[in-house]
Amino acid sequence: MKYPFLDLAKVNAPYIDEIRQAVVDVIDSGRYIGGPAVDAFEEALAKVTHTSHAVGVSNGLDALRLIFRAYIEMGRMAPGDEVIVPANTYIASILALTDNGLTPVLVDADPSTLNIDTALIEQAVTERTRAILTVHLYGRAAFDHRLLDVARRHHLLIVEDNAQAIGAQAHIAGVNGHRATGSLGHAAAISFYPTKNIGAMGDAGAVTTCDSDLAATVRALANYGCDRRYHNLYAGLNCRLDPMQAALLTVKLRHLEAENGARFARAVCYGNVIDHPLVTKPLMTPHVSDCVWHQYVVQLPPEHRDRFIAYLADNSVGTDIHYPTPPHRQPCYSGTGRLIHGPLPVTERLAASMVSLPISPATTVREASEIARIINRFA
Length: 379
Ligand SMILES: *Cc1c(COP(=O)(O)O)cnc(C)c1O
Prior knowledge:
Elements: H1 8-12, H2 16-29, H3 36-48, E1 53-57, H4 60-73, E2 82-86, H5 91-98, E3 103-107, E4 129-135, H6 145-153, E5 157-161, E6 169-171, E7 178-180, E8 187-191, E9 205-209, H7 212-221, E10 226-228, E11 231-232, H8 243-253, H9 256-273, E12 296-299, H10 302-314, H11 345-353, E13 354-357, H12 365-376
The structure holds pyridoxal-5'-phosphate.
Pyridoxal-5'-phosphate binds near residues 59 and 193.
């Protein structure tokens, strides 16, 4: 492939000497669980997300699971409670809820942002609703005054699935300025899965929050439930962050702004050059920081999608679909009654029409414009 969808070695190449050194330093230190590499990363991550606590954990799904488990241990939620969540999301958002015995209540997507339609949240609230899990999908902050207003009036916790949007900001009507994803709600989960905007070389994740009780509970739960050594307050898990991953993530975090800026430049290029009657481009908003372009998702009429993907492959352009089957259609949930939802026409249509184009910094702007021209010649 001349234009691969994502070349991770190339993404890491500009920083590879720094990364190697950071990993060697951990090897030489003799500290292979926790220690200064993890502490330094957590401190840097809290700064980037404008929070007071970052707790490094094993991966993004565990970060989400631990947040809800912690709220249950803290008596803020109980199994059987309902959590409002977008239908158009990666399945991990939903798995984290059902793993804790919580009931996901799916809300359809907004056709312009592809995120949760915040106008539909209120009607999904019942007396069992305890939280909204908002997902900043494809890098776009999913947070506005309507979501905030429903949460406040119904005393709901707001949890962010920030796996795809580290570095993005939400601009909230009536609130001055902008706030970083990861600090918008009561707690947030981040993933450092290798393909994410800041990717580890293996699995890694984190919880960010300004709630010190929640941070302490998550930290204990992720370490066998120990609040101090050999004292198990909770029947916990082992979901700790690997210090080698922490060390290399600290290096990569220093380049977050540059990486997200590069993604934005590629999105602008696609936005300017792609001009095809069958191809719907993603929303460009007035605030640059609204979206950190984890994915650049175009839409095709469903009957043309397969042909479009095959045409791009023939022209050496790699693509992907995020995601071809929404969670409520997956065999583990479909027909089980474990998810509450009505008709989800937007989510269903998106699943049949979306195509993700190469957007990582490893695809140059020049290559993005060549890809755009190839798209414009699609017959
Ligand atoms: C990647 C991802 C996760 C899960 O993260 P892992 O680190 O792979 O466990 C959760 N939610 C969303 C939206 C994701 O994209």
